[in-house]
Amino acid sequence: EFKFVDEEISHILKLQPKFLLGLKPDLGLKEADRYGILVLEEFYCTKHGNGKDFLRSLILRYPFLLNKTKSHIEGVFELLAKHGIDEKDAIRYTYDYPKLFSVKLEKQMSEVFHLFKLYNNIEQDKVMTMFRGFPYLFCCDTIKMRKFLAEFKKYKMTEDQIVNLVSRNPSQITGVQKWRASGHSGLKLPQL
């Protein structure tokens, strides 16, 4: 149904063999604890109108998503919505930066908000502006983040300079290039 070829199935099974269990809708799990390709199909295709090619590509980029429960996936989207990210952008950000599903996002966001406020007196709305330009921001190691925030303070950078730098050229401060942050697996994937 999803048109996975043998090489792709091998790739998925090597990284996430438990996903086969998620193919059965009758495992006796509570609705919120369900996981697997059927949950992802329901969420991304049925609820949000994405095609099966989108879901196939997402799974190939990030097979570990098959292990995320329905409540976890919905929780990430609810948290992003709480901070002003609409569903369309949330889908794009989680597709490009699937690590957003692997970090304890609420805790990480809280810590990043705190650090930007502490070091540079930058409010949450400006941090969210930076996130929109660089969604990997909430996946960055906060220990390393402290170093570049201290540099901003040391050189007396303005709020606008910091927002502009982090939003437009994050690799200069984080060392993370956008394609590397996206969970690139080496397989050829369709572009969105």
Written overview of the protein:
The structure is a single chain. The protein has 192 residues and is mostly helical. The chain is built from 11 helices and no strands. 24% of the residues are buried.
- Work out the radius of gyration: 18 Å
Secondary structure: number of strands = 0
On the 0-100 scale, what is the average pLDDT? Answer: 83
Uncertain regions: pLDDT < 50 for 5+ in a row? 179-192
Structural class: mainly alpha
Strand content: under 5%
Note the main sheet.
Answer: none
State the helicity in percent bands.
55-70%
Distance linking N and C termini: 20 Å
Series of H and E elements: HHHHHHHHHHH
Count helical runs: 11
Q: Quick one: overall form?
A: elongated
Structural topology:
Layout: H1 6-15, H2 37-47, H3 52-61, H4 70-82, H5 87-96, H6 105-120, H7 124-133, H8 142-154, H9 159-168, H10 171-174, H11 178-181
Helix pairs in contact: 2-3, 6-8, 7-9
Summarize this, please?
The chain has eleven helices and no strands. The protein has 192 residues and is mainly α.
Key words describing this protein structure:
single chain; 192 residues; mainly alpha; disordered C terminus
